[in-house]
Amino acid sequence: MSYETPALTEAARQVQICNACRYCEGYCSVFPAMFRERTFASGDLTQLANLCHNCRGCYYACQYTEPHEFALNLPAALAEARRESWERFAWPGTLSRLFQRSGVAVAAALVLGVVLLFAAIRAVPDTGNGFYAYMSHALMVAIFAPAFLAPLVVIGIGLRRYWAEVGGQRVQWSDLRNAGRSAATMRNLSGGQGQGCNFEDEDRFTNTRRYLHQATMWGFLLCFASTSSGTVLHYGFGLEAPYGLFSLPKLLGVPGGILLTVGAFGLAWLKTKADPALGAAHLWGGEMAFVLLLGLTGATGLALYAATGTGAVPALLAIHLGAVLALFLTTPYSKMAHGFYRFAALVRDAQIARRTGTAD
After folding, report:
1. Does 16 reside within a domain?
2. What is the pLDDT of residue 3?
3. 85, 117, 143 — which closes off a domain?
4. Are 178 and 244 members of one domain?
5. Residue 192: helix, strand or coil by DSSP?
6. Do residues 268 and 292 make contact, with C-beta atoms less than 8 angstroms apart?
7. What is the pLDDT of residue 190?
8. How many folded domains does the chain comprise?
9. Is the pLDDT of residue 2 over 60?
10. Is residue 213 scored above 80 in pLDDT?
11. How many CB atoms lie within 10 A of CB 155?
């Protein structure tokens, strides 16, 4: 069977060897999904690549890594296929290639976002309360509504292309439930036996990466829920910011900001300890910049809240909102897209397991 790209060709070679060996059968969802098949089309490889969490346990357990002639490095092969799929599905793909590979590009987006927000604060002063004393609610909506909705449209285009390539079918509630359970618990980062993975050290099993991923994910979702609750209070009940500590936006946002900050900076620290050769090494800068941007978003949000009523608010407001703006606009093209594609892969995996009678 011929494949369209060298990355898919190499992934197919390694997957076929793994499928014959089957030593890693008890590992993450990649291997049960792999062992259901005998041959692999391009869509099958794309599905396996997006199921992979790059925990690397399979590499350290493998007897066919270098110096063996098979020279298996499945985490790296699937990382390349995964990177290629995101670039292929993104619209336009040029931006995905830029922000995935270049930490400088992510940093430039952050600087541009901060500069634009500083300019907006200076150009359109307001006389409202709290943050609205520096930027009106209407101006925030004018900036962030399209910055949030437009990337969602682009992500939707990419997911539709992904779903077509992997042969996705009509989704049932049970598929979403099973995928949601896997995503919420990050069970694919547990090493298959609950003892964790070997991301930082081949001889050490740890759940640290799993817990930091959970902190980042739940922190981000809590921050999003905080903003959403503020929107409901503003438009639905006529209750305008600033909100007190025991209001819903703060009860969601403060813990969310703490989790997001700790999780993201913790993942950045782990990334410095991991072997880049077991992933897509040329994406290291872009991935690190993305994780640091996530952490900066959480940290500046907390700093902004702590600085309420002080002269530091205008500068911190511009920095925080500039980071949020950069994060939103680069979402379809940076590592942030992995959350959407990985959830889609989990849904598709649940479909296949249901059809073949291999569901948990």
Report:
1. yes
2. 63
3. 85
4. yes
5. coil
6. yes
7. 76
8. 2
9. no
10. yes
11. 21
